[in-house]
Write a structure and sequence with these properties.
Helices cover 30% and strands 20% of the residues. The strands form two sheets. A seven-stranded mixed beta sheet has the order 3-4-2-1-5-6-7, with helices on both faces. It has two domains: 122 residues, Rossmann fold; 143 residues, Dihydrodipicolinate Reductase, domain 2, CATH 3.30.360.10. It is built from nine helices and 13 strands. The structure holds NADP nicotinamide-adenine-dinucleotide phosphate. The site of NADP nicotinamide-adenine-dinucleotide phosphate (NAP) has 30 residues, from helix 1, helix 2, helix 4 and helix 9.
Length: 366
């Protein structure tokens, strides 16, 4: 919301800046893990865009990538790359977004940023279209932020339960896929799996670490045959950046500035799709039947919960799909106001590219 001292929101995008109908879109970071999924999503969704321009580092300039059945040449990131662009999706590392998103915004481009550079900026809305779509219009800096993949993997389901029951406290453990660390994360797991496959490794301390040598990539420990209780970079008092982001972003999106959140983020040997266990405490008593109905009818959420038949969501089953999948719905054993859930979602689709595409479509519709 705009408040005292808040700059006046920019005028919304209307049609294309070139005046020739549909808006021009730039995908910055088109060659990355999120960028690749973005191009697939742009090819699959209703086509609201005129020109689509693909942008990456100078290393990738001249490469051709397919989008909407067309081969498009990648151009290097520069100020000119934003000429005539209406909306730009940024799928690049934090430092690149921090430097270039304001450059694009200063040229009148509406930036939707997938990095962590602006999410907690009070003048940048943090948007999940199923929860706070109205927030896209309050963008005094011309930048809209996309939440972190871990937050996005649970927030749509949680938002629906919050709307009915009023969330009071959250305890979360994550099981995060390696693609959450980009192409480097996926390459690292594949390389490590090739080194440990068919061996007796995993029986004595340090044997997996010795086998993978210094090839731990973006992770502090081997991720093949292992689980690693760390995701992101170091923050104060032993917390990781992914843990702080999950707390801070959940508070901002739900408008619950003081929500108590306890979280531990863990990396697991899964290529794509994050999973989370969630203990959510609400303002009053909950019932499993009521919770199941809310989850089953919430847009963008699928209830998949029949343990007797072996039915619960797993990364291997939900990867490549759009919704947030929820299973193992139980009332807390010792607290009638709390629910236990297992939530699973594709970190590259709803966790990144899909949410960005949905936000961009809201902007385009203006
Ligand atoms: N992976 C996820 O699950 C996920 C989820 C949500 C948000 N995010 C965020 O989305 C962003 C992209 O993540 P990713 O996983 O797709 O990373 P990635 O696979 O490492 O891809 C990085 C992209 O940024 C481009 N890039 C790097 N340096 C650049 C520069 N100097 N100038 C222009 N472009 C540059 C790369 O282009 P080149 O190919 O030319 O190097 C590539 O297209 C990050 O901020 C990440 O935190 C990721």
């Amino acid at each position: 919301m705009a408040g005292p001292g808040t700059p006046t929101p920019r005028p919304p995008v209307s049609g294309s800046r070139s005046g020739h109908g549909r808006p021009t879109l730039a995908v910055v970071g088109a060659t990355g893990a999120v960028g690749a999924v973005m191009l697939r999503i742009l090819s699959q969704r209703a086509d609201v865009w005129g020109e689509i321009r693909l942008v990456a580092s100078p290393r990738s300039a001249g490469r051709k990538l397919a989008v909407r059945g067309e081969e498009i040449e990648v151009v290097a990131l520069s100020e000119e790359a934003f000429d005539g662009v209406d909306v730009a999706m940024f799928d690049v590392p934090d430092d690149i977004a921090e430097q270039w998103a304001p450059v694009a915004a200063a040229k009148g481009v509406v930036v939707i940023d997938n990095s962590g550079a602006f999410r907690m900026d009070p003048d940048v809305p943090l948007v999940v279209p199923e929860i706070n779509p109205h927030a896209v219009r309050q963008r005094p800096r011309g930048i809209i932020a996309n939440p972190h993949c871990t937050t996005l993997s649970m927030i749509v389901a949680l938002g629906a339960l919050h709307a009915e029951y009023g969330l009071r406290e959250l305890v979360v453990s994550t099981y995060q896929a390696v693609s959450g660390a980009g192409r480097a994360g996926v390459d690292t797991l594949r390389r490590q799996l090739s080194l440990v496959a068919g061996t007796e490794l995993g029986t004595t301390p340090g044997d997996v670490r010795r086998a993978v040598g210094d090839g731990t990539g973006p992770f502090p420990e081997p991720v093949a045959l292992n689980v690693v209780p760390w995701a992101g970079s170091a923050r104060a008092d032993g917390w990781s950046s992914d843990e702080m982001q999950l707390r801070d972003e959940t508070r901002k999106i739900l408008g619950l500035a003081k929500l108590p959140v306890a979280v531990t983020c863990v990396r697991v040997p899964v290529v794509t799709a994050h999973a989370l266990t969630v203990h959510a405490r609400f303002q009053s008593e909950v019932t499993v039947a009521g919770a199941r109905e809310i989850i089953a009818t919430a847009p963008g959420v699928v209830l998949f919960d029949n343990p007797d038949a072996g039915e619960f969501p797993t990364p291997a089953d939900v990867v490549g799909t759009d919704p947030t999948w929820v299973g193992r719905v139980r009332r807390a054993l010792d607290d009638p106001t709390a629910l236990e859930l297992f939530v699973c979602g594709d970190n590259l689709r709803k966790g990144a590219a899909l949410n960005t595409a949905q936000i961009a479509e809201l902007v385009a519709a203006e």
